[in-house]
Amino acid sequence: MFDVLVYLFENYYQTETYPDQDTLERKLHAAGFENDDIQDALDWLNTLTDLPKEALPESLDTRQSFRGYSADEAAKLSLESRGFIAFLEGAKILTPLLRELIIERGMALPNEVVGLDKLKVIVLMVLWTRRGNVDALILDELIPDGEKRQTH
Q1: Contact 103, 74 (CB under 8 A)
Q2: pLDDT tens column, 69-95
Q3: Separation of alpha carbons 27 and 22, rounded Å
Q4: What value does the mean pLDDT take over residues 120-140?
Q5: Residue 149: inside a domain
C-alpha cells in the first residue's frame, strides 16, 4: 500500500490532481501494483481526502498544544514515529490539526505498527492533500530511503 501512495505522490504531485478512480486503478495495474495494495491505498487516500473539515476542530490550528498518546496510540505508533511528529510540529511544519490527521490515518492502518518510514509516507500524503504543496527540504526528509524524488 505504501509503495502505491509514494507512486501516486511522485507521479501526480506536480499536476496537483490525479485521474478518476477507474483510470487511476488501470494506471496502477499497468505500473505493476497488486489489486489489494491498490484498493487499500485508494480507500485510505479517499478517507483522508473525504474527511470533513468538521471532523477535527479548527481551533487546533490556532493553539499551542501538547499531545499525549493513549495506550493504543503508543502501541501502534513507534517511539520514532511519535518523536518525528513532535519534531515536525516543533519545526512548525505541522499544525496541531495536521498532527491529528496524521495520527488518525496511522491508527486507521490495519494491525500494523507504524514505523518511521510508514509515518513519513502518511505525513507526505496528509501535507499533499491538505496543504497542496510541500517544501523541497521537507520532501527530501519524507520520501522513503532508497526512493528517488521526481519533482522538478
Answers
A1: no
A2: 999 999 999 999 999 999 998 888 888
A3: 9
A4: 76
A5: no
**Contact of 142 with 120, CB cutoff 8 Å:** yes
What is the reported pLDDT for 144? 61
Sequence letter at residue 150: Q
Is the pTM higher than 0.85? The answer reads no
Provide the number of structural domains found in the chain. Answer: 1
Helices of type H across the chain: 2-12, 21-30, 35-50, 71-76, 79-90, 96-107, 116-131, 136-142
User: Three-state DSSP class for 95?
Assistant: coil
| Backbone φ, ψ for residue 39 (5° rounding) | -65, -45
Range of the domain at 55: 2-142
> Would you say residue 98 lies in a domain?
yes
Residue 114 lies in a domain: yes
